[in-house]
From TrEMBL:
This is Urease accessory protein UreD. The keyword Chaperone applies. InterPro entries: UreD. Belongs to the UreD family. Keywords: Chaperone. It comes from Aphanocapsa feldmannii 277cI. It comes from the Bacteria. GO terms for molecular function: nickel cation binding.
Length: 203
């Protein structure tokens, strides 16, 4: 029996990237309405030299309408593999009970993750530049390497009041990672409703 009880919505994603493939996965934000129950599983399989970048932004409650999450739960499990070797296993759980916990959401309604997997980080300088892209944005933001010495990529976390701030930071990091790989600047997703360009003034 699944706890909490209720009618769960579920989503399962399976992405298989061929050799030297490159995929950027940036869906629209998820809004978990009050009493909502949602569970997702995302499995990413990378062949040799394949690279995956994924972004997830979740809002707990429709706060724009003055609604908060009093009941409900969001669960996610992301797995990134290269062959038989896991690069990242990332289970997440957000609930109404953890909304106000200092070690959980600490009353903040928005949570986000950016994962860049399949690339060896050159050194700590790239991480520091990604961290510097937080400037001027509301919320708590952390960025760290995946795997020993960043051999598998990097991961960014956002916790704060604003989906706009989360998307701004992730867009800046995304642009920086593309520049590092000598790729063209990113085309911002249409499903991310920006009122202004987050890349203007970014360095």
């Amino acid at each position: 029996r699944q706890v909490p009880e209720g009618r769960w919505s579920r989503q399962s994603l399976h992405m298989h990237l061929a050799e030297a493939a490159d995929l950027e996965w940036m869906p629209q934000e998820t809004i978990l309405f009050d009493a909502g129950l949602f569970e997702q599983h995302c499995l990413v399989e990378l062949a040799r030299d394949a690279v995956w970048l994924g972004v997830e932004v979740v809002r707990l409650g429709c706060t724009a309408a003055g609604q908060r999450l009093n009941r409900g739960e969001w669960r996610s499990r992301l797995e990134v593999w290269r062959g038989e070797h896991p690069l990242l296993i990332d289970p997440q759980r957000l609930s109404a009970e953890g909304r106000d916990c200092p070690h959980g959401m600490d009353t903040e309604p928005v949570y986000g993750t950016l994962v860049w997997a399949g690339v060896q980080l050159p050194d700590g300088a790239l991480l520091e530049r990604c961290r510097s892209d937080r400037r001027g944005l509301a919320g708590t933001m952390v960025c760290d390497a995946i795997g020993e010495a960043g051999h598998a990529g990097l991961i960014c976390r956002y916790r704060g009041p604003s989906t706009v701030a989360a998307r701004f930071w992730f867009a800046r990091v995304w642009a920086r990672l593309r520049a590092f790989r000598q790729l063209p600047p990113p085309a911002l997703p249409r499903v991310w409703p920006f009122q202004e360009n987050p890349l203007l003034g970014a360095s």
